[in-house]
UniProtKB/TrEMBL annotation:
<dbReference type="InterPro" id="IPR009051">
    <property type="entry name" value="Helical_ferredxn"/>
</dbReference>
<keyword id="KW-0479">Metal-binding</keyword>
<dbReference type="Pfam" id="PF14691">
    <property type="entry name" value="Fer4_20"/>
</dbReference>
<dbReference type="GO" id="GO:0046872">
    <property type="term" value="F:metal ion binding"/>
</dbReference>
<dbReference type="GO" id="GO:0004355">
    <property type="term" value="F:glutamate synthase (NADPH) activity"/>
</dbReference>
<keyword id="KW-0408">Iron</keyword>
<dbReference type="InterPro" id="IPR036188">
    <property type="entry name" value="FAD/NAD-bd_sf"/>
</dbReference>
<keyword id="KW-0521">NADP</keyword>
<dbReference type="InterPro" id="IPR028261">
    <property type="entry name" value="DPD_II"/>
</dbReference>
<protein>
    <submittedName>
        <fullName>Glutamate synthase [NADPH] small chain</fullName>
        <ecNumber>1.4.1.13</ecNumber>
    </submittedName>
</protein>
<dbReference type="InterPro" id="IPR006006">
    <property type="entry name" value="GltD-like"/>
</dbReference>
<dbReference type="InterPro" id="IPR023753">
    <property type="entry name" value="FAD/NAD-binding_dom"/>
</dbReference>
<dbReference type="GO" id="GO:0051539">
    <property type="term" value="F:4 iron, 4 sulfur cluster binding"/>
</dbReference>
<dbReference type="Pfam" id="PF07992">
    <property type="entry name" value="Pyr_redox_2"/>
</dbReference>
<keyword id="KW-0560">Oxidoreductase</keyword>
<keyword id="KW-0004">4Fe-4S</keyword>
<keyword id="KW-0411">Iron-sulfur</keyword>
Length: 477
């Protein structure tokens, strides 16, 4: 009986997939977690309590039907588990690897609240879809009926690709435009291989391409091709560019050689993993080998940078963050992994400036946490007279991302934006101020999680389908 295979959280302890030892994993960019064996995946899935109100599902942005595919995994019905997982999530094998499950599904697991340790939802999700690819259960995209209408998608990141998948399955002709030479956006060039190996992204890119999605790469909209030209070619357009403008520091010496942006640093490293020739890496500009590295920031991008520097053979790697560990915005799991690999965290510290024309050190101000701000977080306050200099040969700024000025860059001043520079779009549909133009992902909500971009892309695709259906109906009259 199905019930006998579940509710084993009292007898079976939580057990993550084996993690490679730090001394081995920091020598390469391979993923640090091994794959579950079939029996282990079934065992861990069987710990699910099948609760009446699944908080794991309600706290997942995609509202994945987690309890049901856990039950199917426990029962050995893996192909069905994959089909159910794929029904709500375009890229479950990616979310299983990089979602902050400790803040989302697993962090709200009922048995975690009762002290038994959460179900390892992310690891099971990853296992299900990896198994599906290995067994040929991931079918090519084959629409039942081809349609004449076409949609242009600007941005080949998770939001744009999720929308492309939905639209193509419904027979719409889809063209995706992207500034880079490979699709995937930050999945390809922003997230290091030790969290997401690149063949995982490329196999989804291949599935979309084989399914009839056209990719126009190395295409910088506004320079190589105008936004008006894209609008003129398609019945509808989706803007899913993400946010790539780096939040910079304003401090004395910030222009010194050796102070770089996180996105440039991570892109160079990921290009190397593809075997590309990267001049900035070879010259040492974006290479941490033998250097004293200081990363400024406390989010997941900062964790990606410090752990990349360790693997590049840095002499030392320190992370400066102006609040304490409890208030760090990044995943606690990633912080722990970084500590194991030899990263030193310097809490309650903020940069005041930099020394040297070629950076030699970071002038650090020590902080303490004061009264809460409007969001409830304690505000950092300076401790007078506590300044000191932290030696550094390479400083990586990982302070987050902001939207580019798209109306100006694309010469489309009538495209409305918010006071933060994000595109103003309807909450559920993604419809912008321009007829037939939609927007989704970080360019609407600001820098956020991959899983939210997937959710937004899927929602926008449904709204676009409704829009093109209305247009088709009018044309038929």
């Amino acid at each position: 009986m199905a019930g006998q295979k579940m509710l084993k959280f009292v007898d079976v302890e939580r057990d993550m997939p084996e993690k490679r030892p730090p001394n081995l994993r920091k020598e390469d960019f391979g993923e640090i977690y091994a794959e579950y064996a079939t029996a282990k995946a079934a065992e861990q899935a069987s710990r699910c309590s099948q609760c009446g109100v699944p908080y794991c599902q309600s706290h997942c942005p995609l509202h994945n039907n987690i309890p049901d595919w856990l039950r199917m995994t426990a029962e050995g019905r893996l192909e069905e588990a994959y089909e159910l997982s794929q029904a709500t999530n375009t890229f479950p094998e990616i979310c299983g690897r990089i979602c902050p499950q400790d803040r989302l599904c697993e962090g709200n697991c009922v048995i975690e609240q009762s002290g038994h340790g959460t179900v390892t939802i992310g690891s099971v999700e990853k296992y299900i879809t990896d198994t599906a690819f290995e067994n040929g259960w991931v079918k090519p995209i084959k629409p039942h009926t081809e349609r004449a209408e076409s949609v242009g998608i600007i941005g080949a990141g998770p939001g744009g690709l999720a929308a492309a998948d939905i639209l193509r399955r419904r027979g719409v002709q889809v063209t995706v435009y992207d500034r880079y030479d490979r699709g995937g956006g930050l999945l390809t060039y922003g997230i290091p291989g030790f969290k997401l190996e690149k063949d995982i992204v490329m196999q989804r890119m291949q599935q979309l391409e084989d399914g009839g999605v056209e990719f126009v790469l190395n295409c910088d909209v506004g320079d190589d091709l105008s936004f008006d030209a894209i609008r003129g070619k398609h019945e509808a357009v989706l803007i899913a560019t993400g946010v790539y403008k780096t939040r910079g520091l304003e401090a004395p010496g910030v222009g010194a050689e050796g102070i770089v942006r996180a996105i440039d640093y991570l892109t160079a490293s990921n290009r190397k993993s593809f075997g590309d020739v990267v001049e900035e890496f070879e010259s040492g500009e974006l290479n941490a080998t033998g250097k004293k590295v200081v990363v400024i920031g406390g989010g997941d991008t900062a964790m990606d940078c410090v752990r990349t520097a360790i693997r590049q053979g840095a002499e030392s790697v320190k992370c400066l963050y102006r609040r304490d560990e409890a208030n760090m915005p990044g995943s606690m799991r990633e912080v722990q992994n970084a500590k194991e690999e030899g990263v030193e965290f310097v809490w309650l510290s903020a940069p005041k400036g930099f020394t040297g024309d070629k950076v030699e050190g970071v002038m650090v101000q020590k902080m303490r946490l004061g009264a809460p701000d409007a969001s409830g977080r304690q505000m950092p306050e300076l401790i007078e007279g506590s300044d000191y200099i932290e030696d550094a040969d390479l400083v990586v700024q990982a302070l987050g991302f902001e939207p580019e000025d798209i109306p100006t860059l694309w010469n489309v001043p009538e495209l409305e934006v918010t006071r933060w520079g994000t595109i103003k779009a309807e909450f559920t549909t993604g419809q912008t101020s321009l007829e037939g133009v939609f927007a989704a992902g970080d360019i609407v909500r600001g820098a956020s999680l991959v899983v939210w971009a997937i959710k937004d892309g899927r929602d926008a695709a449904e709204a676009i389908l409704e829009y093109v259906n209305q247009g088709a109906a009018v044309a038929a009259e």
